[in-house]
Amino acid sequence: MIKRILFSQPRPMTEHNPYTKLENQFGVECDFYQFIHIEGLEASEFRKQRINPLDYTAVILNSRLGAEHYFRLCEEMRLNVPDSMHYYCNSESVGLYLQKFINYRKRKVFFPENGNKFEDLLPAMHRRPNEKYLMVLSDIHTDDQINMFAKNGVEVTPAIMYRTVTTPWPQDKPFDYDLIALFTPAGVMSLKENFPNWQQGKTLIAAFGESTLRALEEAGYRVDIEAGQGKTFASLPLAIADYLENNQ
């Protein structure tokens, strides 16, 4: 019987959310805790990569966090980002977020018209064969996007500008849940680091996305509920609701 569910993310800001619906419909208690947090690299750490951002004519950004840490590091290193810099973003929301840092002009900022696939930016990149690309990344990432660019004749230099860090579990907070929902491989890392001797036993684990599923399996955990692209359910709350409907 599932009574207590832990979601490895912050509590929603509003009461109208799928987690409240789970509680009301099935009488479960949903708890939330952010398993990971982000820390930016110090300028001294970044310099060890021997990368000068001003050697590049374009920046590739896959998140707002990437934009924040790119401009933060440039400021800390007293680098004046030229107005001629181009920005290739994986979504419109990231592109529009750049208005916080630059005088926004469409000819400087590129993003897919629909969706969030960098592949859709290749035509714009191929029109600028002399562009030099710097891609802002976290220390935890895959090389899938970099490899995709390479296969299409676009050379990209990866630059680690921020890191994903485990958030310590509070010593006075019991870890006694019937179901744990994880959303990222970094969340799996945090679970392992916080509770190195924890045995899953009858505790259920729900995974969002293929990368999280693989990370859980590689860590030796059993995955009982799955959600994400290509799965029956696109979100974990929906997948968990279906499980509770059929197993409670």
Walkthrough of the structure:
- The protein has 248 residues and is of the alpha/beta class.
- It has 2 domains: 4-35 and 169-247, 3-Layer(aba) Sandwich (Rossmann fold); 39-164, Rossmann fold (3-Layer(aba) Sandwich).
- It contains 9 helices and 11 strands.
- The chain has helices spanning 18-26, 43-47, 64-76, 92-97, 122-126, 144-151, 185-194, 210-218, 236-247, and strands at 4-7, 29-32, 36-40, 58-61, 86-89, 109-110, 133-138, 156-166, 179-182, 204-208, 225-227.
- The chain has a 6-stranded mixed sheet. The chain has a 5-stranded parallel sheet with strand order 2-1-9-10-11, sandwiched between helices.
- Helix 1 (18-26) packs parallel to helix 9 and helix 7 (185-194) packs parallel to helix 8 (210-218).
- 31% of the residues are buried.
- The model has no long low-confidence stretch (mean pLDDT 93).
CATH architectural group of the largest domain = 3-Layer(aba) Sandwich
What structural class should be given to the helix and strand makeup?
alpha/beta
Number of helices: 9
The span between the termini is: 6 Å
Computed CA radius of gyration, to the nearest angstrom: 21 Å
Under CATH, the topology of the largest domain can be stated as: Rossmann fold
What fraction, in percent, of the residue positions are helical? 25-40%
* Shape by Cα distribution: elongated
Poorly predicted regions: none
Strand content: 15-25%
- Number of individual domains: 2
